[in-house]
Amino acid sequence: MKSKSGEPWCGDATLAAHSGTAISRRRFLLSAAPVAAAGLLCPSSIAPASATPLDVCLRISPLDSEIASGHTVRTMAYNGSVPGPLIRLAEGRPIEMEIQNESDVEEYVHWHGFSLDARFDGTEEEGSLPVPAHGRVRYTLPPQSSGSYYVHSHSMAHHNLTAGTYSGQFAFVYVEPRQDAGSYDREIFLTSHEWEPRFVNMTKEALSAEEMLHLRVDAEAENEMGEGGWDVQYRFASLNGKALGHGEPIQVRQGERVLFHFLNASATESLQLALPGHQFLVQALDGNRVPSPAHVSTVEMGVGERIDAIVEMRSPGVWVLGSMDDEARGRGLGIVVEYAGAHGEPVWSAPAAEAWSYGLFGKDKESEYGQEQLQFRITRLPLGEDGFERWALRGEGQDNRDSLTTVLNQGKHYRLRIANESGEFHPMHLHRCSFELARLHGIPSAGIVKDTVVVSPYEAVDLIVRPERLGPALFHCHNQMHMDCGLKTLFRIER
Predict the structure, then answer these.
(1) Quick one: which of 192, 170, 437, 394 has its CA closest to 291?
(2) Between the CA atoms of 455, 456, 459 and 463, what dihedral angle is there, to the nearest 10 degrees?
(3) Do residues 437 and 120 make contact, with C-beta atoms less than 8 angstroms apart?
(4) Which of 61, 90, 137, 292 is deepest in the core (most CB within 10 A)?
């Protein structure tokens, strides 16, 4: 977790993962320590005086990033790149951490999937420590179990399409397992994101972020907004910060077993990826091993979800690993996979349609936990005066009031039923605690542990939750627009 000089580092030995080049696990494990890449260290001149050396230093600063040839986006980012450099940690070890904010606004930095104290979780709702403008905070993160996590801005965005998860403030976090890491030859980390968002409406022209900051709609003119209100669309999309065809290809060899780590770091968009002529053997969801690994032709992730899957390279050629959605792929959501010795234009061919379900990877039985049931409803409210959606996540007895804090007892099993009464998909994320999927759209399941679950339109899921850490725990839709518009609630964990 240190460079050879003993300085803190914020990622892998190189930025290879972010250009599409694979990282050799053997090379990582056999090296005495990773060598910090240029620009990833806390400047020694501002390092705090402390007897405890830093493991990770995260720096928030503006960045001009070229996502396609001749096209640069201006954003806030971590440590001078999008995505931020891979943060690779050792299982079972505490992490001494500092966050430096070189921007002009206060920021919240959320450790997605981590089990930790609410003070360090990075949300305003939980009373976490903010990172002041041109300031810094330092704290120790507790040891985490192995798996895929990520870190991102948790600031509210509302009309500001440069803030929160619309920005380039996100990075993959991987906790290396101490043992039984699996059978594979190489690993590749891929992170999706969209760029240059704008608000659009069926009856209005698209408006820029600057225009939306000043938008106020007369309530009497609400009908002009259309029934759907405003939505978000994007001009570009990327994997590892580069649009399809504008980054280095992933170089593979025939016969290799490649472990792909996928992260959907979008602000609002679901992700469905395929690699023509290949299948994904899904190993883990949200960093947790699944009880029944299974082969699929496509992997699907709601906002904030992660998937670890092995691909056996047995179809030589030059391929596009990309979005199943033609428009998203056209905006750049893909990357070229090139076999050694292969030449020619990259080939895209959509695989046959197949149903995606978490249940493919679970046990076909009812979970034995969670006798006390709490029910919550996702409901869409009438449009606000500014033409934006309004959402609510309400428990029993909260029909005519704003969402209230629900008290849960530490160490007790609860069954949470989340019923989606809307026509949209909602990736629901629980902070500081994982859950087991117990029932998916009426079908029993067991053994799948996650921190984010997509609730389909007019369907319901049952989650088994056993909270361990005291204090507030946020539960919300990870679609930034839905969260900004009220789709969240707060649990309070007590003894």
Answers:
(1) 437
(2) -20
(3) no
(4) 137
The closest alpha carbon to 113, from 435, 471, 484, 406, belongs to 435
pLDDT at 312: 98
> pLDDT, tens digit, for every residue of 369-419?
767 889 999 999 998 888 889 999 987 655 544 445 899 999 999 999 999
Residue for token digits 């060598």?
A: 35
Tokens of 444: 């029993």
Range from 182-191, 306-315, 342-351, 393-402 carrying the lowest mean pLDDT: 393-402
Tell me the CB-side half-sphere exposure of residue 392, using CA atoms within 13 A. Answer: 17
Q: In the chain, how many H helices and how many E strands?
A: 4, 32
In three-state secondary structure terms, 213 is helix
Distances (CA, A) of 360 to 310, 356, 436: 16, 8, 15
Other CB atoms within 10 A of residue 473 CB: 24
What predicted TM-score, i.e. pTM, was given to this entire model?
0.88
Dihedral over alpha carbons 401, 213, 477, 136 (to 10 degrees) = -110
Instruction: Tell me the β-bridge partners of 157.
Output: none
Q: Which amino acid is at 397?
A: G
Half-sphere exposure of 454 (CA within 13 A, CB side): 24
**Which residues, other chains included, contact 48 with Cβ-Cβ below 8 Å and sequence gap of 6+?**
98, 136, 138
Domains of the chain: 16-182 (2.60.40.420), 189-356 (2.60.40.420), 372-494 (2.60.40.420)
Q: Which two tokens stand for residue 390?
A: 């309004």
Amino acid present at 125:
E
Helix (H) / strand (E) element for 218: namely none
Cβ-based neighbours of 346, under 8 Å, separated by 6 or more: 245, 249, 318, 319, 320, 336, 338
Q: Give ∠ CA 438-117-485 in degrees, rounded to 5.
A: 65
H, E, C per residue of 316-382? CCEEEEEECCHHHHHCCCEEEEEECCCCCCCECCCCCCCCCCHHHHCECCCCCCCCEEEEEEEEEEC
Copy the structure tokens of residue 106.
């206060």
Q: Is 30 exposed, middle or buried (0-12, 13-18, 19+ CB in 10 A)?
A: exposed
